[in-house]
């Protein structure tokens, strides 16, 4: 498998990255760990005449947990996420999700920024970031801007990011309450048949707040406001969970592929969400 | 065709320099430019792990890295951890416990296992299976691979204790 030829750049400064992107437009792509982009280039499904490797840009691998705010640099790897004690204490759902991505070798290279930026419906981090109501921070020729993860995804591989912008970090408030990342996959290394990210805040035996996002069940991740509303104010009993699953099923739009037909995916989505809610509630 | 790049790598402690197109995959640079044929080309799609090497302290699949990305890196392959006369503990353990049949996956298995035991010197069976999940074997059914790694862990720990 030999990808099409490309010019390779490894700049040390973000300004140089932006300049290359401005110069080459959509003929240029930035690469973090490369574990989504390189397979696509090998299959020649992605052609990248100008490949910009971000590994020498300083400050993109920082994890900051302070003052109730978490910021993850784009080049933080899944391996880093799993092994950062402070982060796991503050937002344990990240570790639970990262451990379900691919395999150890891929997690050493695969980054949170690449996973979020790529826009592949199968990636786990986009749904997770919608659950956490994260802000996606981009830098471009006109400076920096932030976009809510819930607004970022337009269609498969299509996001709000412009061709001359780079995703540099993701930030969100430290989540509170119970959490669960539940994923059904056929085997290690596969994308989800269905996955659910859930955070629940409990107060006086009732659900005070809930956030629910689903992965690989539409061409974009799906944050289901209806499913959240179905839980809030209830004691998270069977009827509430059933209502939440029904609301979620109204928001997703899975398509048939080698993981199964639409009816099967909808069935699995309901099962996975119910399990995730149950576990998050137990931990709340 | 793009211009060739001047690539520098430190492989198994030796400095190597050569010219390569940036799109060349690390596995092919190792095998064809440097004649280091321990890392194998299995699936070539980052699923099987036969091409696993240690690069700057990480287990990576060398079929999913451009040689340009690896430029400047320190790499260890199966050739760098033992010799036929002085096998690495894991190599000895795989032989002792029949942790291979055809042997094709073994260099990747052992390289991944070296890193696994470095990060977790006392793994449970479950942790070994989870930590080796990126390496596929089509012969053994994994039982003896897991046994070999657990036995190597015990041996390394016993040696460490004895040294103290």
TrEMBL record, chain A:
Keywords: FAD, Flavoprotein, Oxidoreductase. Its EC number is 1.2.99.2. The keyword Ribonucleoprotein does not apply. GO terms for molecular function: FAD binding; oxidoreductase activity. InterPro entries: CO_DH_flav_C, CO_DH_flav_C_dom_sf, Diverse_Substr_Oxidored, FAD-bd_PCMH, FAD-bd_PCMH-like_sf, FAD-bd_PCMH_sub1, FAD-bd_PCMH_sub2, Mopterin_DH_FAD-bd. Residues 1-177 form the FAD-binding PCMH-type domain. It comes from the Bacteria. It is an enzyme of class 1 (oxidoreductase). Gene3D superfamilies: 3.30.465.10, CO dehydrogenase flavoprotein, C-terminal domain, Uridine Diphospho-n-acetylenolpyruvylglucosamine Reductase, domain 2. The keyword Flavoprotein applies. Transmembrane segments: none annotated. This is Carbon monoxide dehydrogenase medium chain. It comes from Thalassovita gelatinovora (Thalassobius gelatinovorus). The gene is coxM_1.
UniProtKB/TrEMBL annotation, chain B:
Residues 5-81 form the 2Fe-2S ferredoxin-type domain. It comes from the Bacteria. InterPro entries: 2Fe-2S-bd, 2Fe-2S-bd_dom_sf, 2Fe-2S_ferredoxin-like_sf, 2Fe-2S_ferredoxin-type, Beta-grasp_dom_sf, Diverse_Oxidoreductases. The keyword Cell inner membrane does not apply. One of its GO terms (molecular function) is 2 iron, 2 sulfur cluster binding. PROSITE patterns: 2FE2S_FER_2. Keywords: 2Fe-2S, Iron, Iron-sulfur, Metal-binding, Oxidoreductase. It is an enzyme of class 1 (oxidoreductase). Its EC number is 1.2.99.2. This is Carbon monoxide dehydrogenase small chain. It comes from Thalassovita gelatinovora (Thalassobius gelatinovorus).
